[in-house]
Design brief:
Blueprint lengths: L3 E4 L2 E4 L4 E7 L8 E7 L6 E6 L6 E3 L7 E6 L4 E6 L8 E8 L11 E2 L3 E6 L1
Protein backbone atom coordinates (compact mmCIF):
# COMPACT_ATOMS: atom_id res chain seq x y z
CA UNK A 1 0.00 0.00 0.00
CA UNK A 2 1.22 3.49 -0.90
CA UNK A 3 -0.35 6.73 0.24
CA UNK A 4 0.30 9.78 -1.90
CA UNK A 5 -0.03 13.43 -0.88
CA UNK A 6 0.09 16.11 -3.55
CA UNK A 7 1.08 19.70 -2.93
CA UNK A 8 2.18 22.82 -4.78
CA UNK A 9 -0.87 23.87 -6.74
CA UNK A 10 -2.11 27.42 -6.94
CA UNK A 11 -3.13 30.36 -9.09
CA UNK A 12 -0.56 31.67 -11.56
CA UNK A 13 -0.43 33.80 -14.68
CA UNK A 14 0.07 32.43 -18.15
CA UNK A 15 3.79 32.03 -18.81
CA UNK A 16 4.62 31.44 -15.15
CA UNK A 17 6.13 28.31 -13.63
CA UNK A 18 4.96 26.04 -10.84
CA UNK A 19 6.33 22.89 -9.23
CA UNK A 20 4.12 20.17 -7.88
CA UNK A 21 5.27 17.59 -5.35
CA UNK A 22 3.89 14.18 -4.51
CA UNK A 23 5.10 12.63 -1.28
CA UNK A 24 4.65 8.93 -0.71
CA UNK A 25 4.45 6.94 2.46
CA UNK A 26 5.80 3.42 2.73
CA UNK A 27 9.13 1.77 2.21
CA UNK A 28 8.24 0.43 -1.23
CA UNK A 29 7.97 3.76 -3.06
CA UNK A 30 11.05 3.05 -5.18
CA UNK A 31 9.43 -0.12 -6.52
CA UNK A 32 6.67 1.82 -8.29
CA UNK A 33 6.56 3.63 -11.56
CA UNK A 34 4.89 6.99 -11.11
CA UNK A 35 2.71 9.23 -13.18
CA UNK A 36 1.04 12.62 -13.21
CA UNK A 37 -2.46 13.09 -14.56
CA UNK A 38 -4.81 16.04 -14.71
CA UNK A 39 -8.52 16.57 -15.02
CA UNK A 40 -10.23 19.74 -16.15
CA UNK A 41 -13.91 20.41 -15.44
CA UNK A 42 -16.14 18.36 -17.71
CA UNK A 43 -13.23 16.43 -19.19
CA UNK A 44 -11.73 12.99 -18.69
CA UNK A 45 -8.60 12.49 -16.65
CA UNK A 46 -5.62 13.04 -18.94
CA UNK A 47 -2.10 11.60 -18.85
CA UNK A 48 0.58 14.21 -18.25
CA UNK A 49 3.89 12.50 -17.45
CA UNK A 50 5.49 9.19 -16.47
CA UNK A 51 8.70 8.24 -14.72
CA UNK A 52 10.04 4.76 -14.16
CA UNK A 53 11.30 3.36 -10.86
CA UNK A 54 14.91 4.31 -11.44
CA UNK A 55 14.16 7.51 -13.42
CA UNK A 56 15.70 5.90 -16.49
CA UNK A 57 12.53 6.34 -18.53
CA UNK A 58 10.26 9.35 -18.78
CA UNK A 59 7.58 10.32 -21.24
CA UNK A 60 5.02 13.06 -21.59
CA UNK A 61 1.66 13.84 -23.01
CA UNK A 62 1.82 15.76 -26.26
CA UNK A 63 0.22 18.86 -24.77
CA UNK A 64 2.97 19.32 -22.15
CA UNK A 65 6.03 17.99 -23.97
CA UNK A 66 8.88 20.48 -23.82
CA UNK A 67 7.27 22.51 -21.03
CA UNK A 68 6.86 20.06 -18.14
CA UNK A 69 9.50 17.89 -16.48
CA UNK A 70 8.89 14.94 -14.20
CA UNK A 71 11.51 13.81 -11.70
CA UNK A 72 11.75 11.74 -8.55
CA UNK A 73 13.90 11.45 -5.47
CA UNK A 74 13.60 7.94 -4.09
CA UNK A 75 15.54 8.89 -0.96
CA UNK A 76 12.79 11.40 -0.16
CA UNK A 77 9.91 9.24 -1.43
CA UNK A 78 8.85 12.14 -3.62
CA UNK A 79 8.15 12.89 -7.24
CA UNK A 80 7.94 16.30 -8.81
CA UNK A 81 6.35 17.98 -11.78
CA UNK A 82 8.09 21.15 -12.90
CA UNK A 83 5.68 23.11 -15.07
CA UNK A 84 7.06 25.96 -17.16
CA UNK A 85 5.45 28.29 -19.69
CA UNK A 86 2.04 27.54 -18.24
CA UNK A 87 -1.00 28.10 -20.43
CA UNK A 88 -4.61 28.77 -19.56
CA UNK A 89 -5.45 25.32 -20.93
CA UNK A 90 -3.20 23.73 -18.28
CA UNK A 91 -5.83 24.63 -15.69
CA UNK A 92 -6.94 21.40 -13.99
CA UNK A 93 -6.73 19.31 -10.87
CA UNK A 94 -3.42 17.48 -10.96
CA UNK A 95 -2.99 13.99 -9.52
CA UNK A 96 -0.02 11.75 -8.95
CA UNK A 97 -0.37 8.00 -9.13
CA UNK A 98 1.64 4.80 -8.68
CA UNK A 99 1.78 1.82 -11.00
CA UNK A 100 3.58 -1.45 -11.61
CA UNK A 101 3.28 -0.89 -15.35
CA UNK A 102 4.75 1.43 -17.93
CA UNK A 103 1.55 3.19 -18.80
CA UNK A 104 -0.37 6.24 -19.83
CA UNK A 105 -3.81 4.91 -18.95
CA UNK A 106 -5.67 5.70 -15.74
CA UNK A 107 -6.61 2.03 -15.32
CA UNK A 108 -2.95 1.03 -15.05
CA UNK A 109 -2.44 3.02 -11.84
CA UNK A 110 -3.32 1.50 -8.49
CA UNK A 111 -2.74 4.30 -6.00
CA UNK A 112 -3.75 7.94 -6.35
CA UNK A 113 -3.05 11.15 -4.52
CA UNK A 114 -5.83 13.54 -3.58
CA UNK A 115 -5.14 16.08 -6.32
CA UNK A 116 -4.18 19.73 -6.27
CA UNK A 117 -5.78 22.59 -8.20
CA UNK A 118 -3.68 24.46 -10.72
CA UNK A 119 -5.31 27.54 -12.20
CA UNK A 120 -3.61 29.52 -14.94
CA UNK A 121 -5.05 32.93 -15.60
CA UNK A 122 -4.52 35.15 -18.61
Amino acid sequence: QVQLVVSGGGLVLAGDSLRLSCAASGRTFSSYNMGWFRQAPGKEREFVAFISRSSSTTYYGDSVKGRFTISRDNAKNTIYLQMNSLKVEDTAVYYCAASNAFGVNVAQYMYWGQGTQVTVSS
